[in-house]
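User:
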Amino acid sequence: MRASKFRAVGLAAALVGWSFAAPRVRWHPIPNASLGTGLVAITRSPLGLRPPALWSGLRYGLAAGAVAALGVAATTALPPARRAMAARDLPEHPVRWLLLDIPIGTVWPEEAAYRATLGTVAEAAFGPTPGRLLQAAAFGLWHIIDARVTGQPVIGTVLLTGVGGWVFGWLHARSGSLAAPMLVHLAINQAAGLAALLPNPRRRTIRNTGGYRREILRRMAYRGW
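Assistant: Predicted structure:
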């Protein structure tokens, strides 16, 4: 049991460390997708993407995803949220962002790494509740770099994404399928992405600096990362 606990904590630390040690590839879909796929292959974590578990995952994911998307839409329609989004830079290629970067570069690797792999290992080592807490805490810490680059409050981002990690973990355990948290995660990110892309005269799209990813690297270099 001690070895399994060490493995779970070590895996959580390694994932958080990756976010700090390799921030320059965090926004590229190929390394991220490879990370999630590799962890699942190495640990042979169950995904529940075949019937009958898949049907349960789809039921939970579609229902919760619809509620989450409506919540995001309602929140981002508020004036303070619109003003905050207007101050943020957008990618030069929004279609690629929505269809590739979000589902392949964010949703799949994060769900594969945190819910399928870390969640399974942590819950086996510590039990359902402590294991899910470890997974959720690591998921929140994973977003520190994202918050610093985008100028969002770090503590608020960590807490919010940590709660999200807990909910995603619950959905994974409840449905028995990674499809459930993947669908909800995708619904939240896509709804927020579409809301950010709505016309806003105060918003600017990065073009002259060579694109969104290059601008992110410029900011990181400016801040000494």
